[in-house]
Design goal:
The protein has about 750 residues and is mainly alpha-helical. It is about 70% helix and about 0% strand.
Amino acid sequence: MSLLWVSPIDMKRSAIFYSRHSFQLFSHHLNLGFPRNHLQLLVRRSLSRKLYSSSSINTRPFPDYSPKKPTIKDSELVHQISKAIKLRRSEPLCRILKPYESKFRSDHLIWVLMNIKNDYELVLNFFDWARLLRDPNLEARCIVVQIAVASKDLKMAHELIFDFWSKPNLDISLSFTHFVDRLIYTYKDWGSDPNVFDVFFQVLVELGMLSEARKLFDKLLNYGVIVSVNSCNLYLTQLSRNFDMLGMAIKDFSEFPQVGVHWNTASYNIIMNSLFQLGKVKEAHLFLLRMEFKGCIPDVVSYSTIINGYCHIGELQKVLWLVKEMQMNGLKPNSYTYSSLILLLCRSGKVVEGEKVLRKMINQGVYPDNVIYTTLIDGFCKMGNTEAAYKLFDEMESQKIIPDFVAYTALICGLSQTGKMMEAERLFNEMLKKELEPDEVTYTALIDGYCKSGEMKKAFSLHNQMVQIGLAPNVVTYTALADGLCKCGELDTANELLHEMCRKGLQLNICTYNSIVNGLCKAGNILQAIRLMEEMQEAGMYPDTITYTTLMDAYCKTGEMVRAHGLLREMLDRGLQPTVVTFNVLMNGFCLSGMLEEGERLLKWMLEKGIMPNATTYNSIMKQYCVRNNMRTTTEIYRDMCAQGVIPDSNTYNILIKGHCKARNMKEAWFLHKEMVEKGFNLTVSSYNALIKGFFKRKKLLEARELFEEMRREGLVADAEIYNLFVDINYEEGNLETTLELCDEAIEKCLVDEARNGD
């Protein structure tokens, strides 16, 4: 059945919507690209269906209740029991009814209930007493369920039904038929409240007996009873939790209105979520519009479901438009809405915009949770901006939001990738103290970080610790270790590690080979790396873009641009597509070789081919123009970069600041310094040195001193010339204590280091 099917009940109300003009608005609003004639055809088919009315069905009446008649002897016993329990005061029933226990049967229970059914509390007490003697028959249980519902005690009715269906070794098929028959049989004389069937339907759904629930739904239609929309929603929800039943949920949603079920906003939300799970986001959006024409007002959940769907397929503009629309409709986005939007922005590399959304939601009184903070922390870490990630981590703790192991792992990964291993280790130890269990990803991130910084002893120590606590190192872990060994020149050990991987049954993948190729290239063994690439092909593992890019980088760094070009041609002949990293490698090679014109031609070609450069691409060119003291061209390239929507990174700012300082453009340098600090980036040592010297030359001692003190607070070491300048200034100002302190610091940090380097 088409998702656009219009039930006859709503035809009159929807007539305006299905006019020609409305179709144009409908299609334009969604921008789904559906041809107008296709939509019209679907609706014509829907409108041509015969009107189905529940009143046209010949419903049968509920049967009269006609229980077995008691004998004179049974009647006397029932009378005695009824009288005894009615006249009781505070005495417990078990004491009063003790004389009747041996003669009591299930039939007696029903006959007594007939006498006391108007006293609900007494009914429950008596039923509990009877249950202690023996399990009551199905008819008696259904009678008490009917009385409970008639007394508006739906909770007790639910408990009595649930208790029956939770019995072990129950024949579901037989019991279902009997239970339904008994419930229908006792309905007319014992309660006549249709809520009893609602409660039964809900219990079946909660127990996962969805097939039986649907059978009950259909059977009740014969008696003119329609299960409530809330119970139907519970049924749809359970169906939607099983991926294989999503189609059934959508089908039942389409069919139920034909027999009188009037869906509400919650119903549409369930189906929109089902469509989203099936990957049908645009169809779900159609439902959002359809529900408005059905008289159901979309709520925050409705919009958030569609927003989350579009976030998953990366349609940012639609997401932003929907957020705006829901606000125009007076709906306030909730934490779930913002969480989806922030996740999409982070996935799109727009982490700074994601943090702006965080600030906006806080200002609107919507408080972020652990997931939102962790998403942003991970986003900033992947950008390499661990300072911004750390600020969010600290903010998270100050807001009494306890970081979980995912948040710690994200930050540890970011710190490890940027070589800040002391901080990563501190966080790891803090994580262990808080009894948060690190996983393979946490350990592998630390191991990779130590390998990159050449601390192989610590890397293998973590590997051993990982194995001791029962975590299995994977291919990524071993690849990091092999890569680290290659960088340290321990190629034989790396080779042994590869054999160990094979012995453990780990399949060597392209990443493993690429790490070894990279390690060999870093160690200057390019020929050995080429031989390994040939061995890869013999083993059936073909080099990929990363393999070729790694080898090209090695040739570019040695100035062998002809060979680098040769690898690019070979790569293209094999049908491999170069990435922006590949072009950055070539760009860096051109710039290092002084071939700036070739670099600019490459940039122009990339833009013409629709290959978007990143900050690294532009940084290589700008750095060389700064070296040549050509700040006019550098500034033009920087402006072009921003015009292309490429966001400057930390290197961009440090290159520009040093270039402007060298050209004595201190206003420009100071402005860029302020801008980069606002964006969470830090100056490098060489940038601090350049700024301080630049301000000295311009006689701007206040700014120079401020930067020098900031540099010292950051634990960075200025060069000897700057120490000499400040020693002289403090001596002339009569600050002897500071002068001596700076002298000691200069000797310890500058002269000792120089001596060590000289050795």
